[in-house]
Amino acid sequence: MGAEGEKRTYRDAGVDIDVADSVVKVVREQARATFTPGVLSDVGFFGGLFELTGYRHTVLVSSTDGVGTKLKIACALGKHDTIGKDIVNHCVNDILACGASPLFFLDYIAMSKLIPDVITSVTGGMAQALAEAGCALIGGETAEMPGLYPEGEYDIVGFIVGAVEKDGILTGESISAGDAIIGLPSSGLHTNGYSLARKVFDTDRDPTVLKRFQDQLGMTLGERLLEPHRCYFTALKPWLSRIKGLAHITGGGIPGNLPRTIPRGLAARIDSDAWEVPAIFSLIQEQGNIDRDEMYRVFNMGMGMLVICSPDTATEFVGAVSDARVIGEITEQGNGDRVILQ
User: Are residues 95 and 133 in the same domain?
Assistant: First the structure.
């Protein structure tokens, strides 16, 4: 009970509408910079309106995801713009694996008490990544929920919608034995495996380890762990009509994601010596005393997107995309595993 006659406000309960309104004004300007011709509504309307044109037999492709406990690293270092890029690029890559081009994006950010600089840093990175992918930020939600989140921490979710011609969907059905598997390098952990990495380096107990320079990495541990999730859309878009299948290597690593695009009865033979595993993964494995198989089940191990195509297309692709390399081939499965890591 308050003092007699005392007026209660939403701010007294921990929610400041004025701060929320000031944040929306900044985010609205960031979002407008991503608008494409299909956008019919401004940020702040009750719904985001998007006019779809230019397709014959349109299939909409949607996805939603977060960035996991990478947020703990960002909060410990007070650096949040890379998180905005992470959430966008992860979502763009997911629908790209179906052959889709991104149309529009919405975000959800929640924290105990709104911190304008944090939110606008996140959405600023988001807007930059969306502009690079030709995708519009048409709306979202910023929620202030006292008591639900630890002070100074937040959660973020991204929602994306893209489109693909029905006959251009990458179902993987045309994949056959003898097809090549091409790897496109990751930029680091991307957005998976951070719970294990945090445990290995004990960052929750001692966040100062994130600011220590690591000779093996050529930078601080925190800088390396916050490298943004790479977007593969620009590199792959010109090749989509000649690609048979794509696998975005996220949680579950190569063994968990590659079978999602390979027809039953087939397997993938991967030559793990075909690329140099980035130092951050070696450091995690050594310091955490982690088995090789476990590393490949948790992390992307340096390969963020796998492309499956004919050997002829693979030769052209590797010649045109500078950091692409053939890392394996499709085989008959037999009675063994669907992914054989040699």
Answer: yes
